[in-house]
Design a protein that fits this description.
- This protein is mainly α and 184 residues long.
- It has one domain: Leucine-rich Repeat Variant (Alpha Horseshoe), CATH 1.25.10.
- It is built from ten helices and no strands.
- It is globular, with a radius of gyration of 17 Å.
Length: 184
């Protein structure tokens, strides 16, 4: 099988920030690559899956609205992510999407009720399952924002944070304290 232009680029991506930024810049300069990038993000069997997620995070900082036509696919596939290296950047993108949705201006993302439910479910899953701190931190912040619009979320979030608080690192505790202060 012939590798696509994007797959060839992803083969050379590594964890160095400059390297990831360069590939993200390539996508920003070639928007035609974006659909394939989103598709690879949710193809766990693809060896470049986690790298695509890294790139999507960086592209989303610049062009979050590019995700609008892909939201049904993106949100409904959050649950397929099992690799920590894929979940962390996607949890960050979910946070960006939710924050944008509630900004309500002409440049904001418009999530459907189903998209929002998928984001809530994935964020709670990442929070209660054995994922790394960064993924949990993004999930806590995302659920905090969602909880301002769904009255059942803050009480659930508080129970989980209180229950797990003692078992986590200083980084988790810092985010947990920050959010608990806002909830009270």
């Amino acid at each position: 099988m012939m590798l696509s232009e994007l797959q060839k680029k992803l083969d050379y991506v590594n964890a160095y920030r400059e390297n990831r930024l360069k590939t993200a810049q390539d996508v920003l300069e070639n928007p035609s690559l974006f659909s394939e990038l989103v598709s690879i993000c949710f193809s766990p069997e693809d060896k470049n899956n986690h790298k695509a997620c890294w790139i999507l995070e960086f592209v989303s900082y610049e062009e979050l609205l590019w995700l609008q036509p892909h939201l049904d696919f993106f949100c409904s596939n959050l649950k397929v992510l099992k690799d920590e290296s894929s979940m962390r950047p996607i949890a960050k993108v979910v946070q960006l999407l939710v924050k944008s949705h509630y900004k309500k201006n002409e440049n904001s993302i418009k999530l459907s009720e189903e998209n929002l439910q998928d984001c809530i479910e994935a964020s709670f899953d990442w929070l209660i399952n054995d994922t790394k701190v960064a993924t949990k931190a993004y999930s806590i912040r995302t659920l905090y924002v969602l909880g301002n619009h769904y009255d059942w979320i803050h009480p659930e979030l508080k129970v989980i944070i209180d229950k797990d608080f003692g078992d986590h690192s200083a980084a988790y505790k810092a985010v947990a304290k920050e959010v608990l202060k806002k909830i009270k």
